[in-house]
TrEMBL record:
<feature type="domain" description="C2H2-type">
    <location>
        <begin position="48"/>
        <end position="75"/>
    </location>
</feature>
<dbReference type="InterPro" id="IPR013087">
    <property type="entry name" value="Znf_C2H2_type"/>
</dbReference>
<dbReference type="Pfam" id="PF00096">
    <property type="entry name" value="zf-C2H2"/>
</dbReference>
<dbReference type="Pfam" id="PF13894">
    <property type="entry name" value="zf-C2H2_4"/>
</dbReference>
<keyword id="KW-0479">Metal-binding</keyword>
<keyword id="KW-0863">Zinc-finger</keyword>
<dbReference type="InterPro" id="IPR036236">
    <property type="entry name" value="Znf_C2H2_sf"/>
</dbReference>
<keyword id="KW-0677">Repeat</keyword>
<dbReference type="GO" id="GO:0000981">
    <property type="term" value="F:DNA-binding transcription factor activity, RNA polymerase II-specific"/>
</dbReference>
<dbReference type="GO" id="GO:0008270">
    <property type="term" value="F:zinc ion binding"/>
</dbReference>
<feature type="domain" description="C2H2-type">
    <location>
        <begin position="105"/>
        <end position="128"/>
    </location>
</feature>
<dbReference type="GO" id="GO:0000978">
    <property type="term" value="F:RNA polymerase II cis-regulatory region sequence-specific DNA binding"/>
</dbReference>
<protein>
    <submittedName>
        <fullName>Zinc finger protein 568-like</fullName>
    </submittedName>
</protein>
<feature type="domain" description="C2H2-type">
    <location>
        <begin position="77"/>
        <end position="104"/>
    </location>
</feature>
<keyword id="KW-0862">Zinc</keyword>
Amino acid sequence: MREKRSYWLQLYPKNENTIEVQQPVLATNSRNRSIFQSSRMTRGQLTYKCTNCNRSYMRMSCLKRHLRVECGQAPKYQCKICHGWFKYKHNLTAHWKMHVEEPKYNCDLCPKKFYRRDRLLEHQKRLHNILPML
């Protein structure tokens, strides 16, 4: 028999009241109901789904950020070199390094070079079947 798990869900971050629920819940406020679809279980965790674009998030705060900054919003930051657009300044900063810096991560198995270590590891895993050492 499966054990019931308890999840803590804060429906209103500005309010200090937190409720304990035994299973996923639906926002009870009519304003929230239109924004937040019912939560559902995924690998034992609550997920929150955007009703506009169907993207899912593990935290309600991430869904709220998505609604405020991402979903249906035009990007605010533009690269002055290639004129690409970005929604977050840190993404523009990371992108900008491609234009001004030499790649510092080289693949030992092929001539490919990368600006970020995580991209090199992803490349080695995908193309060369090499798992990163921990």
